[in-house]
Amino acid sequence: MNKAVIDPTPTDWNGHIMQKRIASRYAAERRFKAMGFMAVALSTLFLAFLLFTMLGQGLRGFQRTEIAVEFDFPALTSGATAASVTGPNADAALNSMDIPGLVELAVGQQYAGLGDSLLTSAAAANVRQMLIDNPELVTSKQTLWLPADSRLDVAFKRKGEPAAEKTVAALSEKDALRTGFNWTFLTGADATDPSAVGIWAAFKGSLMTMAITLLLAFPVGVLAALYLEEYAPKNRLTDMIEVSINNLAAVPSIIFGLLGLAVFLTIFGMPRSSALVGGLTLALMTMPVIVIAGRNAVKSVPPSIREAALGIGASPVQVVFHHVLPLALPGILTGTIIGMARALGETAPLLMIGMRAFIPAAPEGFTDAATALPVQIYLWSDEVNQGFVEKTSAAIIVLLIFLLGMNALAIYLRNRFETRW
Amino acid sequence: MGSVFSGIRPILVQGGNVKFMTGTALLFLVLGLGLIGWIVGRARASGFVRKAKGGPRGTVNSLPYYHGWFVAICAVVPALLFMVIWQSLSPSLVTNMVLSAPIAAELPQDTFARAAILSEARAIAQGFQATAFQDMSDKLVPLYKGALSYYKWLGVAATLLLLFAGGAFAFTRLKPDFRARGKVERVIMFGLLVASLIAIITTLGIFASLIFESWRFFSMVSPFEFLFGTDWNPKSVVTPGADNGYGAIPLFWGTIFIGAIIAMVVAIPLGLMSAIFLTQYASSTVRKWMKPILEILAGVPTVVYGYFAALTVAPAVRDFAVMLGVSNAASDNALAAGIVMGVMIIPLVSSMSDDSIAAVPNAMRDGSLAMGATKSETIKQVLLPAALPGVVGGILLAVSRAIGETMIVVMAAGYTANLTANPFDTITTITVQIVALLTGDQDFGSPHTLAAFALGLALFITTFFLNYVALRVVKKYREAYE
């Protein structure tokens, strides 16, 4: 057996010191990997938490609490017939019935001592609509389910004010409460009473704004992308265009709002808080996104396509519009949808041009005062009334569904139509 | 109405429904006639082709539809240009016509009173306003009605005349050897150039409007007070020389504190480590699923983040502060806004880091691994130092994004200017104050409104600078490894 030579250099991998060192290096490796995993997990958890919070609160916003109210129509209306509330004179007949008074009377008789504001302010309009839909109701005794006041709504769904809780308990005892689907939320407009609000007006405003944005940003963005990729000579002007586009893509959105305020509203005098101005402002913001996506899509079309087209006698314009553009279109569309999704969720520039007004009816034209879905969310989030919390979350759910849908569509288009050259 | 544009109200406002509708109708008429021009031009060129079939080949220079486009462009483009010019010209023509009437001599000499009466009469004539608040306006209404309809019909007639003249001119030029394609393609090239120039025009428009309004602001409030003052409590009436409460230092600090410090403390470690984990450690399945999930974070609208921050995060942070024994914790504290903003920025930092780590040549990584370094040692000592410029560029972009972010801070941070480093205290930012200053019904020329533009200018210059440096750094770095 040779005399053991102890090597002083730390290359003895089985030695105690080296083993310890390797162990600590591997521990550091595991720690590092765990940190990476934690980072991804934390981000995902945050997203999940956000979505669950919104879902948890928002789903209640699609529901409403209804109270059973018994109407003795023959007695209340002193013998109105189904024929009298139909036909051309129905409006006048219904007006002369004084439905708000009827509702108050019926509630007062049935739930005496439970306070005077059991129903939401829109209840009379609901009764009126029911009578128009089904005139036969007016000939007999009927039990109608009418939406409850916002305080009771809050108290029935979760915890509300003590007084409202007491009323709810009393009503539940009589079996006079139920939960129904809140159609008003999908068809209505902004209101001061949270049980009567709806998102249709804001949604229509968003749609109109997006229409203007798409109409302006898409053609301009595509044409600019084609020019920069296919024709632009290398000179100062082209450099300036490139710097502008890259810069515009990163300018804070609120700055575009200031531009809209100073130029579109003050200099051009366009109508304040209209979908037209909102669309113009968002178009300026979306255009650079489309240009950048469009340039990448045009760049990925292989030169052989262009050369082949040129070779059989196409002019440069024909090459681009007959061959390059159709091949690049899926990529351009993907970029456009992503840009539009960003514009749909944008709030700050719209606040600048005055789309924060109280809009109690859906806009009819592009120059009418309008609001947009994200702005409506912002406005409702500012309300003190407890009833608005679930409405805000419900509106957020609608907005998120649309944004995620648009992004999914973009991904689908990319996978379905993108050609790998 | 005392809103922002009470004094100035040209074109579309007065247009509103009545005039805008006729404008739309005219637009569709012009486009429809253009379509007819296209069909007629193409039909004529098809005739050339049929005739040429019997004769020598190649006598028709361009395909028939190019002739059609030539006719349509000649007819529609001048007419549309005229419509745009007429829209901006006709209001002053209408006013001149009204003022030239004898009754206008009774108008007050004072410019503001005069403008108020004129604008009211115009609004009534167009059916925006039912009754007049000033007696004088009523007398002017019929005059306005006459002038408006006179110039409207004049504009319509001139537009149509121009359209037919252009179409007829183009039609007479159609011949078998007419080079329609060359002409049409020149117009297309011009259109492409104009579309690209819109980006420059927008940039210049932003810059010019911010500079102009800021200059008006600084003629009321000294730039020295704005840039170095520490008291932000803007007064609506300013006295030159005195302290007007327009010291923006607390806003600059608040913006940096929330956007560049708190948000980055959250976003840089999480974003960088996510990128490292997903590119270096995760299996391809995990990567395929987790990347889009992280991208959803970037797709959530900021108003949703703001609502979440205000409703859920801020109360939690305040409870936490109270637990720690911080007595003056505010419900609209800086920490909640900063944390949520940081989460919003994670995907940006992550994807920029991802790109720059992927750009490091594989030879460097392989060399390090071959020397016996562990993966984490390779990442920390080889990949990250090599990718540092790209990562820094990404972080600069993220900072620029964070300080320009509006809704999260508007909803979750406070409105009180506070020069403090306590994250549990309320603090305000540039963007919050822009929104606050423009809320309400001030006149456009009021110092409040103009101050918003001065703040906007400061924000624009900062973000422009950050973006420019970031893009330069990233570009230089890419070139280094190419």
TrEMBL record, chain A:
Residues in coiled coil: none
PROSITE patterns for this protein: ABC_TM1
Keyword vocabulary terms for this entry: Cell membrane, Membrane, Transmembrane, Transmembrane helix, Transport
CDD domains: TM_PBP2
Domain ABC transmembrane type-1: start-end pairs: 203-410
Chain segments annotated as transmembrane: 34-55, 207-228, 248-268, 275-294, 324-345, 392-413
Recorded topology in the membrane: Multi-pass membrane protein
Gene3D superfamilies recorded: MetI-like
Key word Lipid biosynthesis present: no
Primary location recorded for the protein, binned into one broad class: membrane
GO MF assignments: phosphate transmembrane transporter activity
Superkingdom assignment: Bacteria
Subcellular location: Cell inner membrane; Cell membrane
InterPro entries in UniProt: DUF3333 (IPR024573), MetI-like (IPR000515), MetI-like_sf (IPR035906), Phosphate_PstA (IPR005672)
SUPFAM superfamilies in UniProt: MetI-like (SSF161098)
Gene Ontology cellular component terms for the protein in this record: plasma membrane
A GO BP annotation: phosphate ion transmembrane transport
Similarity field: Belongs to the binding-protein-dependent transport system permease family. CysTW subfamily.
Protein name, UniProt field: Phosphate transport system permease protein PstA
Species annotation: Sphingorhabdus rigui
Taxonomic path: Bacteria, Pseudomonadati, Pseudomonadota, Alphaproteobacteria, Sphingomonadales
